[in-house]
């Protein structure tokens, strides 16, 4: 009888712990998600581009302030608005899209200030190398989408990376900067 009581107590505590975890899964909305970059062009103007094809998911537990993000970019979908520049960026001088068709960001560390998300840190895999990246949240919110009738969470995130950490060295000797500003606007739909 004591064994049955202990087993029942363990099962109840396990169920209570599982019920406490409120992890919600969201799928990245590609029509409201863009990863763009900015780089200074020989100290004059700023070149900008973005990746048109992306997919991923977010798992978020607002109560425990934990989560996980997976975002995959199709490197051949780079779009600067100029076809010749896109082809150069897709070449082995930069993203080598033929050999490395995707880049991936995976994060599992979220920092909050109260209920406000302030940072997401994870790993960016690009050109066969993986390095840590810290994204600062400049905006974050969840809302009930009036068209979808579902919760949507999203925000704006940014960071600056050094491209040579991933072996993207072309043009450094010509004065093309190593520093690349990444700007990520993301919205994800509750599943």
UniProtKB/TrEMBL annotation:
Keywords: Signal. Residues 1-21 form the signal peptide. Residues 25-189 form the Lipid/polyisoprenoid-binding YceI-like domain. InterPro entries: Lipid/polyisoprenoid-bd_YceI, TTHA0802/YceI-like_sf. Gene3D superfamilies: Lipid/polyisoprenoid-binding, YceI-like (2.40.128.110). PANTHER family: PERIPLASMIC PROTEIN, PROTEIN YCEI. This is Polyisoprenoid-binding protein. It comes from Undibacterium terreum.
């Amino acid at each position: 009888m004591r064994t049955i009581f202990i087993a029942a107590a363990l099962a109840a505590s396990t169920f209570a712990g599982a019920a406490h975890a409120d992890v919600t899964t969201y799928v990245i909305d590609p029509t409201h998600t863009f990863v763009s970059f900015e780089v200074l062009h020989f100290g004059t103007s700023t070149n900008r581009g973005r990746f048109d094809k992306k997919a991923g998911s977010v798992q978020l537990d607002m109560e425990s302030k934990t989560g996980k993000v997976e975002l995959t970019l199709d490197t051949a979908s780079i779009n600067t608005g100029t076809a010749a520049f896109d082809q150069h960026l897709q070449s082995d001088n930069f993203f080598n899209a033929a050999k490395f068709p995707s880049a991936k960001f995976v994060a599992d560390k979220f920092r909050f200030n109260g209920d406000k998300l302030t940072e997401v840190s994870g790993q960016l895999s690009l050109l066969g190398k993986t390095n840590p990246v810290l994204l600062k949240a400049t905006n974050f919110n969840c809302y009930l989408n009036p068209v979808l009738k579902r919760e949507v969470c999203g925000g704006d995130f940014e960071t600056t990376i050094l491209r040579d950490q991933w072996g993207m060295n072309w043009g450094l000797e010509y004065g093309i900067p190593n520093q690349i500003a990444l700007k990520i606007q993301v919205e994800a739909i509750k599943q």
